[in-house]
Design a protein that fits this description.
Elements: H1 26-36, E1 44-48, H2 54-61, E2 66-71, H3 74-91, E3 98-102, H4 108-111, E4 119-122, H5 126-140, E5 150-153
Parallel strand pairs: 1-2, 1-4, 2-3, 4-5
Helix pairs in contact: 2-3
């Protein structure tokens, strides 16, 4: 796994061992960020269920102003810290561009937030989509958004996107419905 574009392009990213995280593939991130083009420059991001931090670090490499990484797993937090150090150095970023927070986003007190972001990357374990999709889409993500926020999901292809509240509009879907897991 590596950064696919921007100032830190080619930098290898570590991924937490075990079954608790499922890092986004290079191909997925490259397709996503290619479709975003220059709209990622000078924006603020939050990477929810950050895992290795690959979405937020990719955004920073491509010109995002800052990113908040939120993850519950301690091993993943350490991985994000290591990856962030490497990307900060390679992309010549200020360390203030990165905030890392350990929090269980499924607990209401942890999900509350006072700041909105331009981009939300939401990539929880797929099992959570089955049991918590309404909460993830219509409660958790809303806490980090305002009317101009872009929500980017990585979810099972069979997820019924009609579960998304009317607060969100589907702009683009990468991949095909019913393909993959």
């Amino acid at each position: 796994m590596r950064i696919t574009g921007g100032k830190a392009r080619g930098i290898a990213l570590k991924s937490p061992n075990g079954q608790n995280t499922r890092p986004a593939t290079d191909r997925t991130r490259e397709s996503l960020f290619s479709s975003l083009a220059n709209s990622i420059e000078d924006v603020t991001c939050v990477d929810l269920f950050a895992g290795s931090g690959s979405y937020g670090l990719e955004a920073l490499s491509r010109g995002a102003k800052s990113c908040l990484f939120i993850e519950h797993n301690r091993t993943a937090i350490e991985c994000i810290k290591q990856n962030a150090q490497t990307v900060v150095k390679s992309a010549e970023l200020k360390s203030e561009a990165i905030q890392i927070k350990q929090s269980d986003l499924l607990k209401a007190h942890s999900a509350s937030n006072q700041q909105s972001f331009d981009f939300i990357f939401l990539d929880p374990p797929y099992a959570l989509w089955e049991s918590h999709s309404d909460y993830l889409l219509n409660n958790l993500a809303i806490n980090y958004a305002d009317e101009s926020t872009h929500l980017i999901l990585e979810c099972p292809s069979e997820l019924a996107l009609n579960a998304i509240s009317s607060s969100w509009s589907l702009l683009k879907r990468l991949g095909k419905e019913g393909k993959g897991k």
